[in-house]
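Record type: monomer structure entry
Structure origin: computed from sequence
Chain ID: A
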Amino acid sequence: MTALFLAALFASLGVRLWLSLRQERSVRAHRAAVPAAFAESIPLAAHEKAADYTVARLRFGRIVQPARAALLVAFTLGGGLQALARFWDQGTLLAGVAFVLSTLFLAELCLLPFAIYRTFVIEERFGFNRTTPALFLSDLVKQSLLAVVLGGPLVFGALWLVSSGGAAWWVWLWAGWVGVSLFFTWAYPVLIAPLFFKFTPLADAELLQRIQDLLRRTGFQSDGVFVMDGSRRSSHANAYFTGLGRRKRIVLFDTLCGMLAPPEVESVLAHELGHFKLNHLWWRLGAGVAMGLLGIAVLALVIDRAWFYTGLGVDEVAAHAGLVLFLWVAPLFTFPLRPLLSAWSRRHEYAADAFAAAHSDGRALVSALVKMYEHNAATLTPDPIHSAFHDTHPPAPLRVARLSSARTPT
């Protein structure tokens, strides 16, 4: 197991670093000229800023990724998990919960300096950061409390099922995981997100009327249209739909409202609405449910195997240690699936674009995307192989070209 783990770790790390270098070469090679499709809409200075921002993030990532790999080795083969297992060795479910939560907490604590640098150095340098140290600390405290209040009972339930659920415990664990996922998808917009952001009903009468007309045309029901104070933390702009059932709500970043004209906001929302109307949410949930079932089935095969633990630096077979090991190691072996998942996501984005062009002004969506590319300093010249692995949205030139050729309703 040790050799297989190290092989997967170094292979995935090597591919990530190679892809990062390819992306940097592509971006730097095209820094001096705006692509022809955007030459009239994006200034050279903005294109250069996007290139520099992308390169800065890539170089930072090439520090973070090896650090994450080293941290994983330190916790596994280096004895970190074994030391924590001995510290919490009381043979109770509560001790198991404490082991899991403390392990995840220590891992995040080790990575905290990178989050601080990303926020207060890179994002600050390029004019995106608006998070104050006090707000950053407040968010960190809230996230930690939520992890304990919500994560503690969930971990307890999972460990209880493993120990008391009989031979079919993994089926019950999967069913519970599905139920919890659906609950949080429903509850996030009304219970969790308001702990971090302020949501106010949209006050712009013209824009609200446009959105309501769009909802009527497409037969979509929403719990409301809200503006989120994203500018308290970042100047990046976006919009999204969230929730399930009658708790679906439309959320606009306040930065987006100040940047786009009403027809452009309408077209962006039409794109997001397309994901719902075309059942992309349910397709993704279904894929997640299927992959979750497969993953938990594999967990059931290894959680009682001594070689799984000893090969990863833990001496004793225990459900709480097995759960943490599986959560950390499994992504190494699923990394090769990234191109397939990204391609599927890009296909959904193209379909949502087509929906938006059919139910709003496609030209407005093009102009909105161009403004967002410029405002968010998104690269217009990605490396195709890097994009195939990492980009859940189509590259800007391909997306704009396809939209520009779509028919717009009269």
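Annotation 1: The mean pLDDT is 91.
Annotation 2: Strands lie at 199-201, 225-228, 239-242, 249-253.
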